Amino acid sequence: MNAAVRARLAMTLAAWLVAFAVVMVLLALFGDLLAALPMAARAAVISGVLVTVMVNLVMPRLAALIGRWTGAPRQGTASARRPFEHSDQGSLRS
Predict the structure, then answer these.
(1) Is 79 within the bounds of a domain?
(2) What pLDDT digit, counting tens, does each position of 52-69 carry?
(3) Annotated region Disordered: where (predicted)?
């Protein structure tokens, strides 16, 4: 299994574990308040907080950590470029 596949699997598992933990904390802290809301409103609040936390706090740090752990190339580095992308040009050419 190459580094990119390992990184993707590790990222998927780690993201699921963190999402689970965030939902559990939200329910533990605000479960009683959320119980008064209709189910759709509860889902909207929990998913909104979850996505905000995951995208802005968790995933950038997790991506860097897993990339170092698995040895996967970081996006934007020369080794992560697509074969048809030239290093002196900012746009992709097909």
Answers:
(1) no
(2) 999 999 888 888 887 777
(3) 73-94
Q: How many domains does the chain have?
A: 1
| Domain contains 28 | yes
Band (pLDDT 50/70/90 cuts) for residue 70 is low
- Burial, 16: exposed, middle or buried (Cβ in 10 Å; 0-12, 13-18, 19+)? exposed
Q: Is residue 48 part of a domain?
A: yes
Long-range contacts of residues 54-60, Cβ cutoff 8 Å, at least 24 apart: 54/15, 54/18, 54/19, 54/22, 58/15, 58/18, 58/22, 59/15
**Residue 41, domain member (yes or no):** yes
Q: Which domain holds residue 11?
A: 3-70
